[in-house]
Structures are given as C-alpha cells and as structure tokens.
Amino acid sequence: MTVSAKLTWLSHGSWLIEAGDSRILLDPFLTDNPAAKATADSLTDISDVLVSHAHFDHINDVASISKRCGSTLIGAFEVVQWFQKHHHVKNAVMMNLGGSCKLPCGQLKMVPAVHSSSFPDGSYGGNPAGYLLTINTKRIYFACDTAYFSDMRFYAHGVDVAVLPIGDLFTMGIEDCIEAVKLIEPKVVLPAHYGTWPPIATDAVQWSGRVSAETKAKPVVLAVGESYEV
After folding, report:
1. Coil, helix or strand for 110?
2. pTM here?
C-alpha cells in the first residue's frame, strides 16, 4: 500500500509528519515560542517524538507531549538518557549518527549536522543530528540546525524533499542554503528555523526567488500551520 506523507510546519524547527497511522513530531517547541500558533496540548495521538539536539528551542515540549501521548522518544543516546533520568520518559529509541531504525511508516536514519548540543542545565546533549525519513520510495531530509557541509550530498543527494534552515546566526543563512540546495539537488526544498525572533528574521520570499533562479529545486514556503504533501 502506498503511503503519502504530510509535512506541517509548526514554526521554528518544529514539524508534524503524518504518514499512515504515524504522527511524528520533530523538535517540539511551542511553549514560549512567539511564532507558534499551536499549543503543546493541542497536539494529540503523537506516535513518535524526534529530537535533533538538546537546545531548549528544540526540546521544550518533548517531555509533556511524550508522556501525555505515550509517544516513543527517538534521539541521540544522551538526549534520550537525559529525558529518562529527569522526566521519566519510558518509551524510547536511542540512536547515534549513521544509525537507522524502522518506524511503522518507513525507515529513519540519523545523519550528521554541524552544530552544538547542550541541555538548558548545561549538560552534554550528544551529537547534533538531522534525519532522513524514507516512506515507500519517497525520501525526506530534515537537515535540522546545521551549517553547510559537503557530506550533505552523501546522505541526502536527490531527495524528494529537503527541509533546510535559512535563519542565519545559529544555522546557515540564505547564501549557504542556496549552496546546499545546489549540492543536494532535491526535487523540493522547504525553509525552516527562521522568523521566530528578530535575530533570525529572514526574507523567505527572497530565498524562494533565489532557489528558483539558481537551482533546479522547487521552493515551497509554508506559513506557520500550513502543510505540504509528499
């Protein structure tokens, strides 16, 4: 049976991925997020929560949602271990870079990101990561918080959808994102991690125009709460 995927941008680096019976939440940051329209309590039946790294703006609602929904927490060994110790999260899959695991909707691979990772209490958050999700023959690359780096091509070349940060300052900005699109050559590219606060306020329309003019990828700019189907 062919399963499609619906990607909903919840703002910042947070995404809801719906595929078949799976409702996967990536980097939930809704509480104390000035750009978010949804609330943590409004998200129901979350099957899995993915965490790319330990910064507060990617884990703020991990514990509350995981425990309320009985979700499986998936992340780096140190991330999962921290949530088990401090929040008693029970259902979990510990991963590390290069590793894969099976989900009901497909295959998930944890891939490198060039960033940092520490918890709000200062403890070590393991390696920062991105994710490559394969559903049937469709491949979706969530670069998450990262700088531009050449190994993106190895992990994500020719993906159906690439979700890349454009906010600059803490991640790559428009210039480096354009280079990443040229390197990866995705069919479709979506921007993320921008517009949450003034320091990462970025012109997504300008980014979209440059993607169209300088690459072969199709840019799709979503408003907060909007979705794209793969």
Report:
1. strand
2. 0.98
Per-residue tens of pLDDT for the chain, all 230 residues: 567 899 999 999 999 999 999 999 999 999 999 999 999 999 999 999 999 999 999 999 999 999 999 999 999 999 999 999 999 999 999 999 999 999 999 999 999 999 999 999 999 999 999 999 999 999 999 999 999 999 999 999 999 999 999 999 999 999 999 999 999 999 999 999 999 999 999 999 999 999 999 999 999 999 999 999 99
- The DSSP line for 194-213 is -SSSGGG---HHHHHHHHHH
Q: For the residues of 1-61, what is the DSSP string, one character each? A: ----EEEEEEETTEEEEEETTEEEEES---TT-TT--S-GGG-----EEE-S---HHHHTT
Which among 171, 132, 161, 207 is positioned nearest to 7, based on CA atoms? 161
Look at the chain and report how many structural domains it folds into. Answer: 1
**Alpha carbons 133 and 125: distance in angstroms, whole number:** 22
**H or E stretch including 130?**
strand 129-135
Residue 18: phi, psi to the nearest 5?
Answer: -115, 125
Query: Which two three-digit tokens encode residue 154?
Result: 């190895």
Kindly calculate the radius of gyration of the chain based on its CA atoms and give it in whole angstroms.
16
- What CATH code is carried by the domain that includes residue 209? 3.60.15.10
Rounded to 10 deg, the angle between the 62-69 and 77-87 helix axes is 70
Find the domain containing 11 and state its range.
5-229
